[in-house]
């Protein structure tokens, strides 16, 4: 029952065909991703400072030692941890709660979804510019509105204590809609019979949510949370526009620190070292996510 | 009596909360739009001027059609908006085409055949996409320097496509798997080659998925900021980097900045709305089903 023309081709050609298909993509990715990463790792093991008279030379793990014993690294780690932790937690809770409300809508769900796309579709640079305007201490509309209810003007972006919460707030604005949409999709694809069975057994709304609904959508929520965590680690554009990592280093995340080291101080060796530490941290988050995704695909 | 009105009130709460959320989601963008239309003197009026005569001056200035900013353009402080727009288009279209081509044929390979180490490869593709962009831009910058690819279209297209190819593979593999292979096999019985069957039969069937993938890649390349910031200079600078230029020397041209921002945002919003059915899958790297 096999096609005549395939039988006529030599067997090795038939077997090689799928590999011919994936080969270009594979080679391309290897060349444009693996090669630079290996090169970056090598750079992290060298002394390489464009501003120094010394020529680049191998110095083993000295860069890593320098970085890990520098308080600015631990500050950046702290900022990153606070940023990622706060944004993911707040967005997951807020997003899921709002999603539970949205699914109750009988009409207009599509419109809601359409409008909620906007915050995370706007280029992050433009988001930064938008909030630069809104959060201006003297002229921004945020302080104006707060003034209407009696709050005195806050230096959102130039106060070391407030700045990090300001950019966390921006992130919340940008990504909570994404969590809402994801959770709504998960809720919409829940099997209806479980819900019916629970309500026949007399479960109240709150109980149903806690013991039936949430466990059912947990896998999807987990993937969403991990995705958010990974994206959080990479945040750059908004910080660049709003605070430049400041005031001082109050909003300098690890990502931003790599940029500063490599492209403002031109210390490529050190920048590469920090960037590899960042990759390690990202992999800690990424690997469980990839595994859970593959498992759900196979199942 | 009391219980009835309480019930009615409680039923309305979800709707009210949702409305508040929607207003919060849209308000900053709307405010930005208003700012782009306000005369310079009205931008910072306290209390804010809610009603005003809109002016298109800022848009004209941004596009180099008006007087005020032309001197800044000529002084080379702000790069030409049109040029930047063309650069953005070339780079976004170029990288999208390249990555869609490479990724789609690879996806056919993964979806239709048993390939050794298939899961490992797919996992690797996903992992690569999760490498922080900063970590990749550093070596790219140095390597491009050696190869003379800095500030070139070719260089930027390659750079943007590094994240796009794995994404295309993941998305398209999922879509292709949804089409039964038997359709291709019937096509082959009718005389099409394997490759022809894939292109002529399966590909048209997943055209909406392909369309969404293309849109996502385009938007991602269009919005990108870090890569153009580092890897481009005068010749190939893209829009997101150019609009930063309106924050020049501590004197911010708010109206122009808002106008430029709106102009950059419009194509993206349009495209995102077109592909909104697939927004979820796209934003989670094709990982979430349904």
Protein traits:
A: 299 residues; mainly alpha; 2 domains; two-stranded antiparallel sheet; 13 helices; 2 strands; disordered N terminus; B: 290 residues; MetI-like fold
Architecture overview:
The complex is a heterodimer of chains A (299) and B (290). Residues 1-5 of chain A have low confidence and may be disordered. Chain A has 299 residues and is an all-alpha fold. A two-stranded antiparallel ribbon of chain A has the order 1-2. Chain A contains 13 helices and two strands, in the order H-H-E-E-H-H-H-H-H-H-H-H-H-H-H. With 290 residues, chain B is mainly alpha-helical. Chain B is 73% helix and 1% strand. Chain B has helices spanning 2-37, 40-43, 57-62, 70-74, 81-112, 118-129, 133-147, 153-177, 181-189, 194-205, 207-223, 226-231, 239-244, 254-274, 279-283; strands at 247-248, 251-252. Chain B is globular. Chains A and B meet through helix 2, helix 4, helix 5, helix 6 and helix 8 of A and helix 1, helix 5, helix 6, helix 7 and helix 8 of B.
CATH arch. level architecture of the largest domain in chain B: Orthogonal Bundle
Instruction: Report how far the terminal alpha carbons of chain A are from each other.
Output: 31 Å
CATH class of the largest domain in chain B: Mainly Alpha
Report the total helices of chain B: 15
Shape of chain B: globular
Using only C-alpha atoms, the radius of gyration of chain A works out to 25 Å
CATH superfamily of the largest domain in chain A: MetI-like
- CATH class of the largest domain in chain A reads Mainly Alpha
Shape of chain A: globular
Distance from N terminus to C terminus of chain B (CA atoms, Å) equals: 45 Å
Low-pLDDT stretches of chain B are 285-290
In the residues of chain A, how many domains can be counted? 2
The amount of helix of chain B comes to over 70%
Oligomer: heterodimer
Helical content of chain A (DSSP H or I, runs of 4+): over 70%
The number of domains of chain B is 2
Structural class of chain A: mainly alpha
């Amino acid at each position: 029952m096999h096609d005549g023309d395939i039988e006529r081709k030599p067997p090795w050609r038939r077997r090689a065909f799928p590999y011919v298909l994936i080969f270009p993509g594979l080679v391309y990715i290897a060349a444009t991703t693996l090669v630079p990463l290996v090169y970056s790792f090598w750079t992290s093991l060298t002394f390489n400072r464009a501003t120094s008279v010394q020529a680049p030379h191998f110095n083993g793990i000295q860069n890593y030692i320098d970085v890990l014993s520098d308080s600015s690294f631990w500050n950046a780690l702290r900022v990153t941890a606070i940023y990622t932790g706060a944004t993911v937690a707040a967005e997951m809770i807020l997003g899921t709660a709002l999603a539970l409300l949205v699914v109750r809508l009988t009409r207009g769900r599509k419109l809601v979804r359409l409008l909620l796309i906007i915050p995370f579709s706007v280029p992050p640079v433009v988001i930064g510019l938008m909030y630069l305007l809104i959060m201006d201490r003297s002229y921004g509309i945020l302080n104006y509105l707060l003034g209407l209810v009696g709050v005195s003007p806050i230096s959102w972006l130039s106060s070391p204590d407030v700045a990090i919460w300001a950019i966390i707030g921006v992130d919340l604005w940008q990504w909570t809609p994404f969590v809402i949409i994801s959770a709504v999709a998960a809720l919409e694809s829940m099997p209806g019979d479980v819900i019916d069975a629970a309500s026949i057994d007399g479960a109240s709304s709150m109980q149903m949510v806690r013991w039936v609904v949430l466990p059912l959508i947990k896998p999807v929520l987990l993937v969403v949370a991990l995705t958010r965590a990974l994206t959080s680690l990479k945040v750059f554009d908004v910080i660049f526009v709003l605070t430049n990592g400041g005031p001082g280093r109050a909003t300098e995340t690890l990502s931003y620190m790599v940029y500063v080291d490599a492209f403002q101080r031109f210390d490529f060796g050190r920048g590469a070292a920090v960037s590899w530490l960042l990759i390690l941290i990202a992999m800690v988050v990424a690997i469980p996510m990839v595994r859970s995704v593959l498992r759900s695909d196979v199942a | 009596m009391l219980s009835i009105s309480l019930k009615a009130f409680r039923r309305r709460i979800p709707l009210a909360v949702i409305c508040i959320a929607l207003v919060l989601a849209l308000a900053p963008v709307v405010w930005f739009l208003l700012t782009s239309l306000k005369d310079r003197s009205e931008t910072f009026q306290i209390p804010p001027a809610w009603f005003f005569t809109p002016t298109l001056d800022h848009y004209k200035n941004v596009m180099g059609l008006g007087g005020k900013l032309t001197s800044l353009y000529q002084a080379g402080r702000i790069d030409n908006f049109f040029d930047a727009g063309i650069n953005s288009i070339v780079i976004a279209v170029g990288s999208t085409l390249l990555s869609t081509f490479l990724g789609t044929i690879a996806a056919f390979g993964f979806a239709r055949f048993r390939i050794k180490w298939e899961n490992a490869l797919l996992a690797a593709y996903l992992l690569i996409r999760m490498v922080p962009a900063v970590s990749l831009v550093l070596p790219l910058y140095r390597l491009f320097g050696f190869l003379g690819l800095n500030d070139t279209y070719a260089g930027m297209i390659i750079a943007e496509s590094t994240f796009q190819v794995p994404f295309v593979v993941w998305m398209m593999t999922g879509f292709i798997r949804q089409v039964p292979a038997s359709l291709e096999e019937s096509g082959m019985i009718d005389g099409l080659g394997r490759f022809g069957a894939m292109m002529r039969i399966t590909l048209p069937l997943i055209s909406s998925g392909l369309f969404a993938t293309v849109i996502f890649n385009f938007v991602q390349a269009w919005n990108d900021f870090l890569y153009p910031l580092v890897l481009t200079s005068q010749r190939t600078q893209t829009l997101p980097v150019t609009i930063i230029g309106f924050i020049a020397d501590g004197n911010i041209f708010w109206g122009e900045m808002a106008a430029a921002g709106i102009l950059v945002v419009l194509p993206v919003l349009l495209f995102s709305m077109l592909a909104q059915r697939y927004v979820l899958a796209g934003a989670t790297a094709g990982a979430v089903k349904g």
